[in-house]
Amino acid sequence: MNFDAVIIGAGAAGLFCAGIAGQRGLKVLVIDHSGKVAEKIRISGGGRANFTNRDLDVRAPHKHFLGANPNFCRSALSRYTPQDFLSLMQRHGVPFHEKHKGQMFCDRSAGDLIDLLLAECAAGGVEHWQPCAVNAVRTGSGSRYEIDTDRGTVQAHSVVVATGGLSIPKIGATDFGHRLAKQFGLRMVETRPALVPLTFDGAAWAPYAGLAGLALPVRIETGAKKERMAFDEDLLFTHRGLSGPGVLQISSYWRPGTPLRIDLAPGQDVAARLGDAKANSRKRIANELANLLPSRLAEAWVSRDEALQRPVNEASDKALTQLAGQVSRWEITPSGTEGYAKAEVTAGGVDTRDLSSQTLESTVPGLFFIGEVVDVTGWLGGYNFQWAWSSAHACAQALPRRAALAA
Ligand code: FDA
Q1: 361 forms bridges with which residues in the sheet?
Q2: 407 pLDDT exceeds 50?
Q3: How confident is the model at residue 140, as a pLDDT?
Q4: In angstroms, what CA-CA distances link 40 with 15, 43, 46, 271, 322?
Q5: Residue pLDDT, tens place only, 50-78
Q6: What residue ranges do the domains of the chain occupy?
Q7: Which of 5, 7, 63, 128 is deepest in the core (most CB within 10 A)?
Q8: Which of 178, 181, 191, 173 lies closest to 32 in space, CA to CA?
Q9: Which CATH architecture has domain 198-337?
Q10: Taking each helix axis from N to C terminus, what angle separates 12-23 and 111-123, rounded to the nearest 10 degrees?
Q11: Which residues are 379's β-sheet partners?
């Protein structure tokens, strides 16, 4: 019951860390309370796991990562890069492909990735207890930790917390890692759901509720001046609000009470097109707008305003200019998000000021935090898994062996 390292959480970061540390010769135990192994990986990327992103710029991580200190992740990312993980996939013979914007997916299923992680653990002789609850972690005698589990109390020189974020509680997400950080006096950055659909209140959303299922490419932005953030991605209407890649991306930057600005016809001069139509067409405004937008959206948009229910040549210049402005700069304020039940990740977490960017060890010696439990949040597109791999790798390289501890 004595280990060099006990890793709590057998998800992406925990399993990867366990395998590398085991292969370095450490005696490693990985524990997870869930009955299913790495369920979040299994459901990720629509079942094919978008496991990294080739566009990641390891010298400028702030381009694709959020957090109180977005550059915190530079050290780990630059020492274990997307290319390193792609090479590992190749060594295991796991087929993969690029979708778009550098996003790398498994060809067959995310199960291949889980098998890879378990094979790495087996190669390192890692002991794996699952399901097994962890009931308490405390400092024991000497430089050891004592960990109370359902299978008894174990001792370890190092404890690695890899329990992930709060997203999707029904498949095992808990705040265990956050509570443990607080128990040991570490600071926390307030958590919030990220990469999450946005909701609107009933009355404001009524005109658009019938559009559920409709998707279109948009430019979507939030924030002002230095805080301004924009994405060119697809938007999806849902029964309660907006989703799709563009909305998930912007949700990580959106702050409650602030508006979103959406260009529904990016790259199009809507005012000029409607002006031309007025001069040359007698069709309904909705039909003309349908040359620029999906027709269901054009109909819903025009149906909100009596003055627009007419042939385009009968509309006033002012009404068409106003319409063009609304389409190119639709300003709406979400009432909230779909919460952790639907969020892909959790923003916030263990404060990076209390962690080493080189090793992920906290200011409490021997206590490490890796993966999503840390205040590092990636964009949609494989960035969160890459953080799991890179932080796990940095930690696994730093975990001390018994010989080093005895010396
Ligand atoms: P992860 O959540 O993988 O693992 C944490 C583990 O800790 C779990 O196994 C859990 O059971 C365990 N645990 C929790 N509490 C515990 C306790 N008290 N005791 C013991 N064990 C405990 N990212 C990406 O890059 N590409 C993608 O395609 C997707 N797709 C995606 C889809 C969906 C639906 C979701 C919800 C998320 C994604 N993500 C993603 C995000 C990605 O899954 C996530 O960032 C990583 O899995 C984080 O890895 P971790 O190892 O930190 O946590």
Answers
A1: 368
A2: no
A3: 83
A4: 13, 5, 11, 46, 46
A5: 999 999 999 999 999 999 999 999 999 99
A6: 2-193+341-406, 198-337
A7: 7
A8: 173
A9: Beta Barrel (2.40)
A10: 30
A11: none
117-121, 225-229, 340-344, 361-365: segment of lowest average pLDDT: 225-229
Token pair 């590092």 is at which residue? 376
* b/e per residue 259-294 (b: at least 16 CB within 10 A): ebbbbbbeebebbebbbebbeebeebbbbbbbebbb
CB 347 within 8 A of CB 194: yes
| CA–CA dist 72, 356 (Å, integer) | 9
Alpha-carbon distance of 71 to 68, in angstroms, equals: 9
Q: What contacts 297, CB < 8 A, 6 or more positions away?
A: 211, 214, 216, 264
Ligand 1 centre distance from Cα of residue 133 (Å) = 17
For the chain, give the longest Cα–Cα distance.
89
Question: Residue 316 burial (CB < 10 Å; 0-12/13-18/19+)?
Answer: exposed
> Which stretches does DSSP call E strand in 300-403?
330-332, 336-337, 345-350, 367-369, 377-378
For residue 404, pLDDT beyond 80: no
Residue list, ligand 1 pocket, CB within 6 Å: 8-14, 31-34, 40, 43-45, 49-50, 134, 162-164, 167-168, 172-174, 176, 344-345, 371-373, 382-385, 388
- The pLDDT tens digits of the residues spanning 208-218 come to 989 999 999 99
CATH topology of domain 2-193+341-406: FAD/NAD(P)-binding domain (3.50.50)
How far apart are the C-alpha atoms of 80 and 393, rounded to whole Å?
A: 7
**Cα–Cα distance measured from residue 250 to residue 94, given in angstroms and rounded to the nearest whole number:** 32
C-alpha 164 to ligand 1 mean position (Å): 5
Two tokens, residue 219? 């430019």
At residue 403, does pLDDT exceed 80? no
- Among the atoms of ligand 1, which is closest to the Cα of residue 9? 7
- In this prediction the pTM is 0.96
